[in-house]
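May I ask for a single protein's sequence together with how it folds?
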Amino acid sequence: MILLAFPVLLIACNSYKGKPFPGIPQEIPGKVQCEFYDLGGEGMTYHDTDSINNGSGKLNPVNGNPLHEFRMDEAVDISYTKTNGTDDNPYNDVMPEMNQLYVGWTEPGEWIKYSVNVKEAGDYTIGLMYTCNGDGGIEVLARDSVTSGLMQVKSTHKDADTVAWRQWHHWNKADMLGKITLKEGMQVITLKTVKNGNMNYDYLEFRKSDK
């Protein structure tokens, strides 16, 4: 994976000191890649229940492969979609892109922040590319006060799959989990894991709503 070097744009948001990764805010409408959360660290740009990245550098050992080492010194848990029956398995509802980074090992109470540039003010639907071993729930906030409310995430568990660990690798895409009203311009959004955890997040997708 090649990360482009963009000039850093600072987001004025009260006392927020986080900076966009990899140097420029993600754009709405569009996809917000979950692994591209802001730079800043625990308590500022994310909260994770432990200090270990359980994917990069652990499940995926350090071996020179950038997919194995992506942000491995940070606590947010990151892995990537794999072939040979792992993420390209027949139990997917939606087939994911291979070698795609995602956030995993999620637990209730964890959250991640993203600097975004909203091109047009208005109501937006929120979609999610995900896996979920058991029904879950998430919330998206803008500017720390505008909320989507609790959005229910449907389980992707399949009893027919007898490979236990693969229950975390059945992918689906929900096109409209909920809605949120966004102002135009630079701002920070927060993705919160509220219910159950056991979810993997590939990307959020924001689409302008026709109401």
Q: What stands out?
A: The domain at 32-208 is CATH 2.60.120.260 (Jelly Rolls). Residues 66-69 form the longest helix (4 residues). Confidence is low (pLDDT under 50) at residues 1-13.
